[in-house]
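Run log, item B.
One chain of 463 residues. Sequence copied directly from the ordering sheet:
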Amino acid sequence: MGNEAPAAPEAAASISSRLGAGTIARYATGSLGTGGFATLPGLVLTYYLTDSLGVAALAAGAVITIAKVWDVVIDPVIGALTDRDLARHASRRRLMLIGACALPLLFALTFAVPPALGPVAAGIWVLLAFTLTATAFSLFQVPYIALPAELTPRYDERTRLLTWRVVVLTLAILLFGAGGPALRRVSDDPVVGYLVMGVVCGIVIGLGMLVATTVARRSVSAPAGPAPVAGNPGIREHYAAGIRALRRSRPFRLLLGTFVLQALATGLMLAGAQYVATWVLHSEAAVELLFVALIAPALLAAPGWGVAARRIGKERTFAIASVVFGVAALSILGVLWVPGDWIYVPVGLAGIAYAGMQSLPMAMLPDVISHDERSNGAGQAGSFSGVWTAGETVGFALGATTLSLILAMTGYVSRAAGQVVEQPDAAVTGIVVSFSLVPAALIALSLVTLARYPLRRADIDPA
């Protein structure tokens, strides 16, 4: 009995560091919002511009890119602001609440373009509305990503937390990827259909975000780190905080580089899915089947990736998931010569891998933050998450932009709602290449940066 007494404080610390089921559930519910916003605009917005509003493919890509560039500009600022909120109020909740409350209305406005507007005015409408929507999303997303580093210090607990977040994320992708286009068809009038989709999906996204704000209110305490900058620091200082985080942390640079390349690959496939359904599978409704094939396996696979990470490490498991995704994407190239329903098989395999590609880097980010805290103090997670969110935004934005460039170079013909057009063979080839070969090449590049990532379990849990 006497020999066991000294171990009691360590055991108590281990027990107290284990996250409760309620905390995990509420945090994961936020991914109903993040998954919905990441999925639905990426899936339908380019198509909405080119095939409902008559905006040229290159101009449609410019609209989305400009909105995303703005997102990249403000994310580091939001990261610094949420760090200040944490230092002053012991919570990151304020910005999360503002974003969650503003997003539903702005999201609906994005898909509420009056039918009388021409392509130019319609493109400007979408640009302004989507830019404001992306701003509201960033107000929530940046502090949301910063929370795991503060909710638990444990390597495996972070994997557990982010695994269940990705379970909800994949469910959200299924819900919005299949349900959003289905809502769009509730009316024979595409104008009404897109509006219904925007209103309903915006409300669901906002509700998911609101639930997650309760974790910030109850679970985060003020850090014993550097004091906030006196006075009211300007935008320059906000950017400087993010740049300092990027420059001083090599693990962060390598993990971010890997994640941005993979976001570009998945963003390109997401934006191209509707085009594959319409012009390769010859059914607009086939986009829903593509998403079922992608997400149904991913729902089952996410916990499995978590188990594998606990056994062989997050880094090695992440590499395995990436290789599987790249091989699956490359095999889709075969539809150029043998089109058919077999495409759903590699899409399903990619879905299994995608679950790991989402949960594992997100579980590695808190490790990077805590590794940095040992030398630079706590309370700077917002600076990391601001740069991370900006990088993710760049990846997804460039995915839509790359698709638009490929469509423009291969002669894709835009159309207004109800108009019938024929696509040249080169455009159909461009759609398939953007959905398979290019993403596979990007995944291969991401493996180069991932191979150099240095942190392991012993660096986070030395005991």
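Observations after the first pass:
- DSSP finds 17 helices and no strands in the chain.
- Residues 22-223+233-460 form a domain with the Growth Hormone; Chain: A; fold (CATH 1.20.1250.20).
Flagged for discussion on Thursday.
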